[in-house]
Structure formats: C-alpha cells, structure tokens
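This entry is set out below.
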Amino acid sequence: MSKYEIISTLVSILAIVVSTISLVRTRKLVQEQLELEKVTAELSKLQIDGIKREKAEKIKPKLNVVLSKLDKNYYFYITNTGQGTAYNVNFELVDCEDSPLVGDLLEKFPHPEMKTNSRVKLIAAIHKQSPLKYQAKVSWHDSEQQAHDETFWVTL
C-alpha cells in the first residue's frame, strides 16, 4: 500500500468513527426529545384537567349557614356564595331536641332556587337554656340535577 492509500484508509476510518459518534449522540438526543414530549403532553393534560375543574367549580353553588344576632333577635342565614344556582334547597337542624326554629321554616323550605349571593333568613328563638352550637344540614340540587348536602356547625 502506498502512502496515499494508507492516509485515505485512515481518513475513512476517522470518518466512520465520527459518523458513529454522531449517530449515537443523535439517537440519545432523539430519545431525550421523545421523553420531553411525553412529559409536555402529560403536563398539558394536567393543565387542561385543572382548567376544566376550575370551570366546573366556578359554576357550582356554595352554600353556607351562619347563626347571628341582629338587635335582640337571632337568625339562621343560609347563603349561596358560589357562582352557580342551587335548586330545591332544604334546611334542617340535626339531632336538635329543642329546635329554635320558628314556623317560617315550613313556609320557606324547600326553597326553589338560590342564585349567586342570595340568602334566606330564618328566625331562631334562642333562650338562655339553648345549646351554644347547632348542627345544620343543607341539601340542594345543582344545575345538572345532582344532589348535594353539607353539614355545618353553627355557634352563637
């Protein structure tokens, strides 16, 4: 073999080595890109799910019960602080032998509709022997006709 043939062979071998190294690095890079795309797709899915949940939470009613005193009288306030409307709202005191609720409970409940920021006021006949806390249960239907109920502990 001549000198030129040896140089030519060495250059060819060097080219093969460089090509092989380049091929291995390219495969690793492609594999990392695929993994990154999978992670990005999962993150996108989680973000979409989070946005859907936030949107669903925004249109749900959120009811709250408070017992407060105004002048000399006590009142139970049932309030919708959520963005959605609550339908067929019911109110009851749980395990309450000496109920402070006066007759307007039957007139006001079941309440057909409670829109955002609306409230219902019930007169409470509180006396010195009344318990200091009450367990109140509120049940309602949302706009999709799904039943919900929540229990609150209200105190004087």
Observations:
- Residues 3-58 form the longest helix (56 residues).
